[in-house]
Amino acid sequence: xxxxxxxxxxxxxKIQESKLPSVGKASIRELVKLVNEIEKETGIKYVRMExxxxxxxxxxxxxxxxxxxxxxGVASKYPMIDGVPELKKEIAxxxxxxxxxxxxxxxxxPTVGSMQGAMAAFLVVNRCxxxxxxxxFIDPGFPVQKQQLxxxxxxYETFDVYNFRGDKLRDKLESYLKKGNISxxxxxxxxxxxxxxFTEKELxxxxxxxxxxxxIVIEDLAxxxxxFRKDLxxxxxxxxxxxxxxxxxxxxxxxxxxxxxxxAGQRIGTMVISNGLYKRRYPxxxxxxxxxxxGYAMLYGAxxxxxxxxxxxxxxxxxxxxxxxxxxxFNFVESVREYGExxxxxxxxxxxxxxxIVYDMDEDKPxxxxxxxxxxxxxxxxxxxxxxxxxxxxxxxxLAITGSERTEGLRACVSQVQRNQFSDLEVRLKRFNQDHRN
Length: 438
Ligand SMILES: Cc1ncc(COP(=O)(O)O)c(C=O)c1O
Prior knowledge:
Elements: H1 8-18, H2 28-42, E1 47-48, H3 60-71, H4 85-99, E2 108-111, H5 113-125, E3 134-139, H6 143-152, E4 155-160, H7 168-177, E5 182-188, H8 200-212, E6 216-221, E7 251-256, E8 269-273, H9 275-279, H10 294-306, H11 312-327, H12 332-351, E9 356-357, E10 361-362, E11 365-366, E12 372-376, H13 382-390, E13 394-395, E14 397-398, E15 410-413, H14 422-436
Parallel strand pairs: 1-13, 3-4, 3-5, 5-6, 6-7
Antiparallel strand pairs: 2-8, 7-8, 9-12, 10-11, 12-15, 14-15
Bound molecules: pyridoxal-5'-phosphate.
């Protein structure tokens, strides 16, 4: 029996009881359950890095506005499908203030999180043109979006961008686009799970090719303004959140409130459709929708099919936070900067103890510190590493489920780790390194 920080026999037994064919291939929720059980049995707290839930409190501004709205009686009333006017106005202002892109309020459609936004987007983009029925993921990425496509019976292709940064991106993207079946390109920026942030040159490449090949870009901004290397917190002032919208008309954005506003539980985000794309007519849409106009099909066809609007009170909460951000009275970026600070310290603890950061550069610049980072340990596969780390009280997920080819790597999420756990992390990783060196 090995002497490990978490009693070896308990971990082993719980793994066996879980009946998982492989711990290393477990889904996030399966891993959460397993670690919960080990914690319960041993009474020892893990350094939990498997789940991407916000670890910070939301702003009181949103909560107060929601309570107010509920007191006014919105709960009994269906919200407008296209969103309450106050929210649409603040979204359009927000896009101008923090991304420097002009968009009509019409194209700002609240969604039940970016999750619903992606589902609605897939329902429309894959039907604009009968010959274009496939989404191209610039991976690694958020696994649930592929699950959505599988559920819809739709096609996708994917490649890991690790070896195709900078100038290499153009040829790689073109190799897919020239086949003529790609309806849309999807990526998150900053990226879940790797935290790479595309450079302006890369965004320009994506935008130009989207125009050339008449493909739509779905820009998933789930981690809006969280590249903390730049100060993206000042409304109306450069630097702005980088976007492909500077380089093509064919874009729609998904902006989530979950992480940037710590509002995951209230399930609200927004889809933002470019003015050009909103009005564009695609005759093939008529196969599924009453209108061939992209925006109309999106709103009254797709979004409406998924939910009769977004929670009424939450729309007011989100509107109030956006308004305060737009007015410069609420610095939403400052309130989540803690993630970056924690990542910096945690990455150091890992690298000092024999680990390597897998995705480590944005072309010639070291990666930003943010919500996630990626790690590997020499000589171990990702699957082995997840299982081994469990004996040392550390949990993370495998990059293999994210479309990454770096199967030696794990994704670590900083949000649930408290600063007072850093010393535990250090002690445990030191032990891990002593036990696994050579
Ligand atoms: C890249 C990415 N897109 C979308 C989502 C979903 O966001 P929401 O909570 O707004 O549905 C997440 C959540 O983790 C994510 O990481």
